[in-house]
Each structure stands twice: as C-alpha cells, then as structure tokens.
Design a protein that fits this description.
Strands 2-1-3-4 form a four-stranded parallel beta sheet. It has four helices and four strands. By secondary structure, it is an alpha/beta fold.
C-alpha cells in the first residue's frame, strides 16, 4: 500500500458564518478524501476550544505543527488572517500550495 498525500486545509474560521465555514471545510475535506488524500481539517479545534478555550497564538502554533507533517496545503477562499498566516508558513517551509 502506498503512502497517501497528507493535505492541510487552511480555512476561514472566525470570519463570516461559523456554520458556513465548518460546512464548507467539511465538504471540501470529504471531496479531497474521495480523491485519495488524507486530510487534516483544523475545524476540529473548535471542539477543543469549546471545552478549554485558548488564545489565537496557541491555536496558530498548533496549526503550524500540523502543517509541518503535511505534504501540501489547500487554501479555502474567504477572509482569514489565520489561513493567510498558515499559507505563509507553509510557503516558507517548502510545502506545495493549492487554492480552490
């Protein structure tokens, strides 16, 4: 069995509609899974934040660690300082970048 390509979703979380953002990231993540990727969707961190809230800096550092283990990153459209930071981080670490 060959190793699957791991892709990180850089997506809006705090801007716009939270429900729409979660739904959009989930739909895109499932589409990528069906195409053979293993997907890391940071929207799951919302569940952690509900139980134990943390400042933005802690979440973005966690996300950078996830990006480190990914092969590439996929930017979902929408205004997002965090997603822009993730794309910049990925570019500096020679990750392949994709936009929808």
């Amino acid at each position: 069995m060959s190793r699957r390509t791991v892709i990180y979703l850089a997506c809006p979380m705090r801007s716009g509609s939270w429900t729409d953002n979660v739904r959009n990231a989930a739909r895109i993540g499932r589409d990528l899974m069906r195409k053979g990727y293993s997907v890391i969707n940071p929207m799951g961190s919302w569940l952690l934040d509900i139980v134990d809230p943390a400042p933005f800096d802690e979440w973005i550092e966690n996300d950078f660690g996830l990006i480190d283990v990914c092969d590439c990153i996929f930017r979902i459209p929408g205004e997002s300082e965090g997603a822009d930071m993730e794309m910049d981080y990925a570019a500096r670490h020679n990750k392949e970048l994709f936009w929808s």
